[in-house]
Amino acid sequence: MSASIAVVGAGPTGTCLVERICANAADLLAWPSLDIHVIDPYPPGGGRVWRREQPGLLWMNSAAAGVTLFTDESVQCQGPIRPGPSLAEWLGCEPGRFASRPVQSAYLSDVFWRAVNTAPRGVRVHVHATRALDLTDVPGGQAVTLEDGRTIEADAVIMAQGHGDVTPTGQELALADVAARSGLRYLPTGYTADLDLDQVPGGEPVIVRGMGLAFVDLMVLLTSGRGGRFVREYDGELVYLPSGREPLLQVGSRRGVPYHSKTGYPFRGARPPVPRFLTAQALGEGPWNFRRDVWPLVAKELGFAYYHELITAHPKRARMSWEEFEEAYAAEEWRDAGMRALIRRAVPRHLDRLDFDRLDRPLERMRFGDSAGLRKWMLGYLGADLERRSDPAHSADHAMILGLLSVYGVLAELGLSDPWFHGFLSYIASGPPGPRLEELRALAKAGVVTFLGADLKVEHRDRRWQAQSPTVPGGVAARTLIEARLPAPSVSRATDPLISALRDRGEIDEESGLLKVRPADRRLLDRSDTPHSRRFAFGPWVVGGWAAGGFARPGLNAPLFRHADALARIVLSEATATQIRHVA
């Protein structure tokens, strides 16, 4: 008799779990054999989002050296460390290269099959290229109903589907209805590689709402993907040569600016000494309001990381030693006047001081007389961002990003999440490669992209979509509106058949759109908050799983590995204990 575990989802999250289960099996397997059933209609490793069948024009948004799915000595976990190559090492390429999505898919596939092929004796991995439709209790375990008609029985099941589709929101349905009745086009939120962009006409204005990563992918597919070319002039300036088939993209968002580009230099400083201030003791008893109770501690951590690098790596730009600054900094609260006075005394240049409000909303309260004025400002803003993110003189920015990643993990450990902070982190630390913003700048100079400003509002009027921002007077009109954003997680609107079946029976519940689990062991909670002994969930759609949703960086004790390892050990213990009970 064999113990058995079912993992629903074969993307990066499921792959990491399979690797950790295989790695821990030799220590924890109390039965002669273990069967791991991996269920996903898409090939294992990449899953749906990172499948190989997508345009090579789409890049990863992380440099190859900053991506790994292998544990290293920095990872603090109970299970064995099984090192392996980062994406850059696997490719044998420059650390700063941004690989294409299909290349990353091949790397993830290699990670999956390496885990399978090096599994301990007695561990068998079965890949089922189909969907899981339902999950029910059976004597001694769980029964997983598959779309191909089969049923798999397992001692424990982990739901690790990753990002999934959802039904449109009420607002999206209303806009789609308006479009249908008015002969307009409307593309709701979705994964860019899955959108039908053939319906977007060339040569016409198109309103795009959103300037994050989804917008960058959209921009690429509608310009380079339609035959346009970027060339570099003799003076080094990047210029776009239109094909004539690209639409005229009129783009705005809440901030009105794109995500900051990735840093383009190797960080050679010491890792910031954080976390230090964001602790359970400092937070006290909940419930907490994130902006009021948690953000001041987070901001203090980020400031600590930033000024540590600025003062130690660039001492000529500071008026006091790190030891003097550190002692005074620890004694002040982030929002207090004493903290502001300390920073003014220590850091003479205003541009060297950290200003989160300015960083988060650069267009706040800015007004331009016309779109030409905004365009000039945006070209300067993009150029300054590219210059700053490629200059190691601003390594304090990089240190703050490392601090953000550390804080992200601490918040996950404490079970704290906040949509605003998640968006802030993405905007600061998860932006596109620098060359993509250089392309955006070239597209704006070529007239293919027009910037609309911040706090963009779109409505239907005079049989057109009308977009307007307080940043500039007037507005623009178009027959096509694209929501350049990923859909927000929502268990109640999920189209995944397994989630739908469990939701409709009340066997799962949601919190802020995410699957509810018991934080200690990630067991699924039903509507009465009762944990299920054999059902688990892990990944970005799970409460507390947002820090495990991205790729891990080597050498940073990534939460993805720590959490996956802990869950693998819990589930292995459950599965093997079940087998012992069966024998008894």
From TrEMBL:
Domain called FAD-dependent urate hydroxylase HpyO/Asp monooxygenase CreE-like FAD/NAD(P)-binding: residue spans: 6-163
Alphabetized Pfam families for the sequence: NAD_binding_9
Signal peptide region: none
PANTHER family per record: BLR0577 PROTEIN
Name this polypeptide is given: FAD-NAD(P)-binding
